[in-house]
Predict the 3D structure of the following.
Amino acid sequence: APEKQILSTGAISVPNPYDPEHPSVFKDWKAHGWVDMRRALAVSSDVYFYAVGGGYADQRGLGIANIEKYMRLFGFGAQTDVQVLGEEIGIVPNPEWKAETFEGERWFLGNTYHTAIGQYGFQVTAVQLVRATAALANGGALLEPVLEAGKRGASMQLLIAEKNLKVVEEGMRLAVTDGLAQALAVPGVRVAAKTG
């Protein structure tokens, strides 16, 4: 639930089965205290998204398969069909990608944590990011980008509950009013943002 609070003390520590004396530590960029989803978006709490993405303590994680499912739903890892030559598709990391890229290495929880915050092998294009952000702002319509004035591209409605889109919108607005993107708080327009 978006209202559930997760404590960010600045890092989480996961037991290392290969070296119990040295747990794996995944750091946040600072200790944020108790954050719910809206606040985590506003202050960019890595620990919150580690827990929601990969699981930690009593928080069950989405897991890498669901993270990949939703990233692809928003158009990441695929062409947008923007009318330019040589469009890249980027990378949505998953166990198969890691094994192929790193000579059979297996996927670890830490890979899920880093993917959950958009790091590790994640690569996106600017057009993909703009398109996904627009879908958040317009009620879940993933648009085909068009560069010609007066033309409209295809639109696909994402099967995302409006209440879930609203939580993300509210968290991104909070980033501007009370979070890391306060420099974007300009008079006369309501801006929402997410640092990256």
In short: The mean pLDDT is 96. The radius of gyration is 18 Å.
